[in-house]
TrEMBL record:
InterPro entries: ARM-type_fold, EVH1_PP4R3, P4R3-like_central_dom, PH-like_dom_sf, PP4R3-like
Organism of derivation: Tychaedon coryphoeus (Karoo scrub-robin)
Bias kind Acidic residues: ranges: 678-691
Domain Serine/threonine-protein phosphatase 4 regulatory subunit 3-like central: 144-309, 328-646
Matching Gene3D superfamilies: Pleckstrin-homology domain (PH domain)/Phosphotyrosine-binding domain (PTB)
Region (Disordered): 678-718
All copies of domain PP4R3 EVH1-like, residue ranges: 5-102
One Gene Ontology term from the biological process aspect of the record: DNA damage response
Superkingdom of the source species: Eukaryota
UniProt GO MF annotations: protein phosphatase activator activity
Bias (Basic and acidic residues): 698-718
Protein name: P4R3B phosphatase
Amino acid sequence: MSDTRRRVKVYTLNEDRQWDDRGTGHVSSSYVERLKGMSLLVRAESDGSLLLESKINPNTAYQKQQADTLIVWSEAENYDLALSFQEKAGCDEIWEKICQVQGKDPSVEVTQDLIESEEEHIEEMPETSPLIDLPTCELNKLEEIADLVTSVLSSPIRREKLALALENEGYIKKLLQLFQVCENLENTEGLHHLYEIIRGILFLNKATLFEVMFSDECIMDVVGCLEYDPSLAQPKRHREFLTKTAKFKEVIPITDSELRQKIHQTYRVQYIQDIILPTPSVFEENFLSTLTSFIFFNKVEIVSMLQMDCVWIPVAIVSKWITINHTHHLHNVLNASPGMDDLQVRSAATDIFSYLVEFSPSMVREFVMQEAQQSDDDILLINVVIEQMICDTDPELGGAVQLMGLLRTLIDPENMLATANKTEKSEFLNFFYNHCMHVLTAPLLANTSEDKCEKGTKYFHFLSPPFKAVLFGSADPGISWECAYGKSCYWKFKLFIFLADNYQTAQLLALILELLTFCVEHHTYHIKNYIMNKDLLRRVLVLMNSKHTFLALCALRFMRRIIGLKDEFYNRYITKGNLFEPVINALLDNGTRYNLLNSAVIELFEFIRVEDIKSLIAHIVENFYNALESIEYVQTFKGLKTKYEQEKDRQSQKLNSVPSILRSNRFRRDARALEEDEEMWFNEDEEEEGEAVVPPVEKSKQEDDFPDSYEKFMETKK
């Protein structure tokens, strides 16, 4: 689990019934001998000191609150505790541990039946002190109000109190009246304070406040406040865009005024979330979860209102009218539309598909798996979607980005169902990797193709011995040089080059890599099998040579996620294939430039050092240290060498502790055996280099022809 998921704030209730912040740290659960049981431990992120050590008592009532990011309990009559989690996933894991100790179902929100006094106390925890006193809503108080709103965001309890105060006093409408006054007076300082206030109120994450802010009466003033970001030299013109530029187009006639208003509201709120609000930091990611839910349930309500208003919806597709009286029938539209030339039809079909995926990804997955039993891979819905992503004619790939997001939702195990009779995750992922993955990776494999290069081009990257170089470009069948093993070695190379390095292709490959990186994080077995069967990481690392830095960084991020798993299967694959070389070449070619690529490469090696991944450390030091030892502006590589030498010393001490007769006869291999192993490694043919170390996936009938598929997509695009 990542550190951010385990990150918590510890609160205790003081004598004045106020919640005191005891510090921020990382929580874990483990058996504590002194307490004779499973316990919750929180260590401070600043110095590792122990902030909390609390035994999970089988009879203590634990309660989950605050949209599943807060756990509250009492350890004694006057000693109450709360853990506020940065991420819901971390809260869920600790909650499962608590429920496991108490023998409870993790779906409950309270683990024990509370006696009346306890129930009143826990339920009223946010109100253990009076509501926050709001300053009077006046121009000269705006700075004070902004400071107040900003100060409560770090405390779940104070956020709750402020939200109640704002709701009870009708405060938001008064603030928006001040906004109009400030704008009329061109009071820039006041407008900047209002930006901070309205942004902070959004981060309170309260649906009741959203209902007020996003009403017809208020929403444009809310947008207006958010135009005056103090960090910008000039205010944005979001209201001008929403009222003059954005046009409402009716795919079908809409006569219900309430439905029309709900569509307008949803579009504007989505605009606020996606365009106006800055990307939340890691500390703010949970602050807008209710806003996301607000948008989602608005969309659900729109679909329900459409179903009530229009039992039969006629949709014109290339002069053919298809009658739709059930959501499932929309698949017919999607199967027909994405390949059509009419941009409006394709756009409408993509929007419909988007709503379907958001509304019920399981329904879409069930459909495509049924479809696979009756159709060829070429016309499977997901493959048609991938084809549209690859063939997007927009220079900025706007449509491709949207479709990639939908694909990501469909292959995300987090929203897949598991029942007693079947597991959607295993069934769908087997389908996806057997029928669709080769289509997704076709552009990547085709653009890092083997043995394709302009005649006569030769360029090599040779590092300090022992050499295990990857050759880019064309060359004679064998190249010889004196290597570290003291003999002349003839190497057989797999030649990989990056064929197309234009901006649009680079953008497309970056999108594909982003999706593959997501697969590495969430699909474990299936993607590992695919990577090793296809020698995919080697092909990805060819993109480190791209002139587009963002693409080189995507390739590096893919490798970083693989190494982050600390899986020895992957580690052996990387070392055996000498896959660090393109990364180190990129670092050396970057020279003394201190840029994002430099930082990302250094971070990769620093992770290996900190996590003490011994097999990778040994490989890096033994093969590349001579080329890296001159890098002294960070201590990463010297640190790797130190770790390597320490491990060698440990192994030497272990060996010395073995009786000499065993050491000489059983544990020592002679030089000839080692030399034979090296020869076997050197003489492996190209097929063996890509050999899988896990059972292979079922081979698709289309898989061997991925370049043909890609060329066909390109013809469609032309």
